[in-house]
Design brief:
Blueprint (H helix, E strand, L loop, with lengths): L8 H10 L3 H6 L9 E4 L3 E5 L9 E5 L12 H22 L3 E6 L11 E6 L10 H4 L10 H39 L13 H5 L34
Antiparallel strand pairs: 1-2, 2-3, 3-5, 4-5
Helix pairs in contact: 3-5
Length: 237
């Protein structure tokens, strides 16, 4: 049974609105912003929430202070960040045998503006009415975990993350090798991939019929001009 203790959410909101960015402070090793770290590289940092509502509650953030997901990150940067979210999800599944992994992005321009993703394992056996938002909302209380337990939890998740990351990198290498092998075996006149072909060419590849050929009209016969819009042939979609 998960025992959640009452949490003063109003005081927390006042505090976050008045203080500098705690994620930037964590990256700069400010003791006041300490959190138990799980993984970090040149682009990303992953750490445990200081106020978890479920065991293993993690945050995944870009190291640079980015605020607007739509405008402050390139597509490649976003996809690399989500790749870390996916690897972390598998690590949490490994450690907690979670029934489900919740992923969401919150924050505000008025407080906690540094872009971050919540990645949270839902244990099995939680009643439906206490899943989803209920399971994540601090209004329903947070876990009070001693620092040594948080440190051990971070260690276990970090170890599982490294295992999953190695497995992920291996699968990606194998996939790239297979793609290169298939491309090398393809005849030169088929070098263009299906994905790079224009849409009509992909759709009608292998068919000798023109795009708007009526099967009931002889090949080469003129196409009748409709006298009204109602007589016009529908354009294939």
């Amino acid at each position: 049974m998960i025992d959640r203790q009452p949490f003063d959410l109003k005081a927390y909101v006042r505090d976050t609105a008045a203080r500098p960015c705690f994620i930037c402070g964590l990256i700069e090793n400010d003791p006041a912003c300490f959190h138990h770290r799980i993984f970090e590289d040149d682009e990303t940092i992953i750490f445990l929430s200081k106020y978890p509502t479920l065991p293993g509650y993690c945050l995944v953030c870009p190291r640079e202070h980015r605020e607007d997901l739509a405008q402050d990150m390139s597509t490649d940067e976003y996809l690399r960040l989500q790749e870390k979210v996916h690897v972390l999800s598998r690590a949490l599944k490994r450690v907690f045998d979670a029934e489900r992994i919740y992923v969401l992005s919150l924050g505000s321009q008025q407080a906690n503006s540094h872009l971050h993703f919540h990645v949270v394992p839902l244990p099995g056996g939680v009643p439906l009415e206490k899943q989803q938002y209920h399971a994540l909302m601090a209004e329903h209380g947070v876990l009070q975990m001693p620092d040594n337990e948080m440190a051990e939890l971070a260690r276990l998740i970090a170890e599982a993350y490294r295992v999953e990351l190695s497995s992920h990198d291996w699968r990606r290498v194998v996939c790239h090798q297979r793609v290169r092998k298939v491309a090398a075996q393809r005849p030169p006149h088929q070098a263009m991939s299906e994905e790079r072909m224009p849409a009509p060419e992909r759709r009608f590849r292998g068919s000798a019929a023109p795009l708007h050929q009526d099967p009931g009209r002889p090949a080469g016969a003129p196409v009748p001009v409709p006298n009204s819009p109602e007589q016009a042939e529908p354009v294939p979609r």
